[in-house]
Amino acid sequence: MTKMMKGVSKQAPGYDQMAFIDLPVPEAKADKVLIKVAYTGICGSDIHTFKGEYKNPTTPVVLGHEFSGEVVAVG
């Protein structure tokens, strides 16, 4: 069974279009690490993405690059 985690995703261009979704927990491979997130913040690019001010053609996209936590696996 695949382990799952929650994420916030911009589902389509435009204002809002956000969803709280289930995502598979990634594996720590090669030069990557797996971090169990303890805290996360919202930055300016998240706000602009929410408002639809970035014309990101690659929706859906998971937001949240401002975070801290504990390394739980090393690739």
Radius of gyration: 14 Å
Catalogue the unreliable spans. none
Q: What is the number of helical segments per DSSP (H or I, 4+ residues)? A: 1
Shape verdict: elongated
Q: Reading side by side through the largest sheet, how are the strands ordered?
A: 2-1-4
Question: What is the percent of helical residues?
Answer: 10-25%
Question: What's the total count of β strands?
Answer: 5
* SSE sequence, one letter per element: EEEHEE
Q: Compute the average pLDDT.
A: 92
Could you give a short account of the major beta sheet? 3 strands, antiparallel
* N- to C-terminal distance: 21 Å
Beta-strand content: 35-45%
Question: What class do helices, strands and sheet pairing give?
Answer: mainly beta
